[in-house]
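During the first year of the project, the team set up a workflow for recording each protein of interest as an amino acid sequence followed immediately by a discrete structure-token representation. This format lets reviewers and collaborators read both layers of information side by side without switching files. As required by the reporting guidelines, we include two representative entries from the current panel. The first entry is reproduced here exactly as it appears in our internal archive.
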Amino acid sequence: MTPCDSRILIVDDEVDFAKGIARQITAAFPECSVEMAHSGQAGLAALETFAPHVMLLDLRLPGMDGHEVLHQVKARHPDVSVVILTGHGTVATAVSALRSGAWDFLTKPVRGEDLIRSLSKAFERSRLLGENQRLTQLMSRSGLHHALIGESASMLRLKESLRAVAAASYTVLVRGESGTGKELVAESVHAFSDRAAKPLVRVNCPAIPEHLLESELFGHVKGAFTGAVNTRKGLFLEASGGVLFLDEIGDISLSVQTKLLRVLQDGEVRPVGASQSFQADTRVIAVTNQNLEAKIKAGTFREDLYYRLNVLCLRTPSLRERRDDIPLLATHFLQKTCTETRTEEKRFSPELLAALCRMEWPGNVRELQNTVRRMAVFSPGPVLEKEHLVFGSEDGALPGQEIIEFLPYKEAKSKLVDTFTREYVQELLERSGGNVSEAARISGLERVSLQKILRRLGVEPGGFRGMKDGGILH
């Protein structure tokens, strides 16, 4: 959803003010639908009939005030983004409204740039919520639990290539970074091929000692070596008619590479110690996350074997190449985790979903899956929020480095300072109960300096009288 597709409801008893706001919105977002209501009751009625994505809500309304309206909006339609409108002297109550679930607040008179910025963010939140719901419905309808998940351009290309590769009978090399789903691609090639009814035999090459890997792959006859008390057929012959999946092919020794090359060339397997060979109708799918070309230059991987394996090649894209798929993947993993742990269904807040999309994922899909699992297990309640990201890693740090949108230095610094100053002053006044002299003493500022800051921010100390709270000043 874009701002042009959005609906916004203005709830304010000042008719002329509401009309002025509506004109600013229409000028900035020409195709955005705007309606107005001039009382709390009328606003709640329009909530049902107009179904807005965003509500601009004045706190001072006749009859039912804005706080009660906000409470009912969050109870009935929690996905509506409520932006509070407040005059000077009511900043403390606006902060209270934020804690009650409002998305943002603006002070009157409203500056045009502040209005447009706040609404743009609210529209983005609504878009992410809609996308989240769509993904949840898609996952529940399509049963994609065992399929390659993704709708990005790179994943669509992979799926298209995969079906073509599956239809052939040649050897396949699947390449990609760790955690990108290479094993799932290999399984899919087998599943879509005419060998699907035949066995898929997996071999984790690095997990088998070199002196045993040859026997494991090609078999041996009784007495071929110490401990060979029985004849063994070997995995190549066990997979005959089907597929042999060689995981991490780059880790096998040169001696095993030589014997594997012979099998791929001749289609015949000779067990260790045997005097004759056996025909094997076995398709090989090899998987690696290593740079085989570099290993060839280093003399640790045979070039002729490389070309025998690399008849058809599939590359699994990294997660940074398919960020558009992160919401779909994360939603799938969340649903799967809830099912596996037999807990109530959970969902992501739009802020958390957006943060996941901005993260770097060096461990790719596997890292994302593990992060979602941890958050699902350790986060309380049905909604996973952005602050629950700390549960996503073992050490309590963020699981991936968030990508920060760089602003010009002065703008970034000003934004950071303003945000800190507003939060500091609000907590300062809460701690001092609105007493400016006491607040100046606590902060170490001159009373006059503090008053200048309050005026610049439009913060009225009187709104904090009677409040006592702790925060960053501890």
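The second entry, processed by the same pipeline in the following quarter, appears below.
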Amino acid sequence: MNAKLSEGLKKLSLDFSVGQIAQLEAYCSCVMEFNKTYNLMKADDEDELYVNHVLDSLAAAPYLSGLIKDGTAVGDIGSGGGCPGIPLAVAFPNAGFTLVERMEKRCAFLESAIKAMNLKNVRVLCKQVDLVEPELFEVEVFRAFHPFDKKITKWLLKMLKKGGHLAAYKAREEKILAEMEEVKFLVPYYEKIKLSVPFLEDHERNLVVVKK
């Protein structure tokens, strides 16, 4: 097993089975292969992929365990190369994940990765967010998708069931404050949770959580 992945999972107190680790390794192999052509995400080698993308995605798992239960419908919005949706789907095998992505090439990659990983709790929805049916998800996650603005926030809330939660991976606090100020009439209250990503402890990472 990759040393960064092994140590990172320990730092996050995530006790993954041999099967779950094998799924993450299969995912990494797919990304590294497709990256040559598709430029899915910035990762020059396996270590960078595991730290900057996989462990970054999993850093929120301890908090999300309070929201994602058996059978929870989770949407990864603007999934791109599959983060955070695919690592989270490995972490929560009894929840149902939908990877929402508009670009057909990326959708083809996601389908290929899911098959290679033998990931049974994930499907790909190749659609623009404004065309996704309303109230489809109980939890929505996204990372490197889009800043909160009026249009995007309305679409995100439309896809979310009443009482559901939106969890957005974000970086610096001042940027979060500026974004949320823009949409305060749509999101009057939100929670900001500080995340610590293994090997990136000096990088500011936060999870912005909104309840509908």
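For the second entry, the following points were noted during internal review. The chain has one domain: 3-211. The mean pLDDT is 96. Both points are flagged for discussion at the upcoming steering committee meeting.
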